[in-house]
Amino acid sequence: MDTHVQNFRFRTAFWVALLVILSENLNHTVWGVNGDDLRDWAYESAGMEGDGWNMVQKKGNQFVVDDQPFYVNGFNTYWLMVFAVDASTRGKVSEVFKQAASVGMTVCRTWAFNDGQWRALQKSPSVYDEDVFKALDFVVSEAKKYKIRLILSLTNNWDAYGGKPQYVKWGKAAGLNLTSDDDFFSHPTLRSYYKAHVKTVLNRINTLTNVTYKDDPTIFAWELMNEPRCTSNPSGDILQEWIEEMAVYVKSIDPKHLVEIGLEGFYGPSTPNKVQFNPNTYAQQVGTDFVRNHQVLGVDFASVHIYADSWISQSISDTHISFTKSWMQAHIDDAENYLGMPVLFSEFGVSSKDQGYNSSFRDTLISTVYKTILDSTRKGGSGGGSLLWQLFPEGTDYMDDGYAVVLSKSPSTSDIISLHSKRLAAFNSLCSWKCRWGCKKHASEEMHQHDDL
């Protein structure tokens, strides 16, 4: 690339980042320009409105797009496919994407499975409902319209939407001698059922875009399973073998996309010095092992969930905040020092059903997660981002598990989310050229000069 072009692009990125910082502090009109207009112009100048839509990749301990850092502010909405089946509820999919995009969120995690349930995608092993698959096509297509990438989970540890208990039911119906839901991980026939589902989803040609899923940059990553546990084998050996087989299998079909496991982040037998960070003693007995599991060939980044109100106590307290800080920092440190990969805090939130809950506490928890991410971001660290559990549009209260955030009803929360998105966007914009010139340290030092970042 021509040196003059490189210098021009670097200067542009620097001034764009500076304008974004200025716009955050500009709460009135200056020279006929207000903060929102200035920020919008800055984003457009940075190419954030461009047509480039390439795969997310991993480079060292960072996510990158086009070799530029991609730190994530995102969300979960697990039921998108099911809502997209029916014309009467399909609009809610578009609505949640539109609202997320309005506050700068860039990644959504959702289910690419519904096993043997109401509106099942997979009605029985390798038997699919085409209408439901077309609904998933719509979700993928619609996400791209709003420049939101998807993490697609391929099955569940729990019985919601079928998951491993449904695979075991299918196995029993086929005459297999199965004694536990954990047989899902070890029985060769059940493994073959799961692998057949993986193959079908990854090779799906979207009926709306004509793009095969495994070739679509809209998909950020594949998740092997939501919150896998194998409590019948606390040593972790059975789950480890399953992860080793399935991560490589996914990569054999689709080497382009990132792969993650879907773990909650509990420390296990391989790191006895780390179990002190677990929320309780039971966590080290569920057959998972954060460090060991993520050293598997084919796994590109780590996943961690944060549920102090479920794991520690259902009564709101400051203990939840201190746990969140230490839990996150331990995993960021391990991702940097032992794994050499990004870590995504792919579920976090607090339930409105908790004793003592109030929206102010929720805002404090969200801000704590975001600040911890930013502390890592400033250093070019492994804290790759976070996904709020969960974002809902209006009129979907009947799906709320207590954790739903409706932006239109939560202005303070919406402001916190929006500000975090702008900070990450500004960092990505500035760092994209600083890092290209090998000046990550200098870029970080400049970021430290701005408290807003």
Structure write-up:
By secondary structure, the chain is of the alpha/beta class. The protein is built from 15 helices and 13 strands. It has helices at residues 3-25, 35-45, 80-85, 87-102, 130-145, 163-173, 183-186, 188-202, 237-253, 290-293, 308-311, 318-339, 359-377, 411-436, 440-448, and strands at 56-59, 62-65, 68-69, 72-76, 107-111, 122-124, 127-128, 149-153, 219-223, 258-260, 302-306, 343-348, 383-389. The strands form 3 sheets. Strands 10-9-8-5-4-13-12-11 form an 8-stranded parallel beta sheet. Strands 1-2-3 form a 3-stranded antiparallel beta sheet. Helix 1 (3-25) packs antiparallel against helix 14, helix 8 packs parallel to helix 9 and helix 12 packs parallel to helix 13. The longest helix has 26 residues, at 411-436. The chain is globular and about 55 Å long. The model is unreliable at 1-10, 26-35, 37-50 and 433-452 (pLDDT under 50).
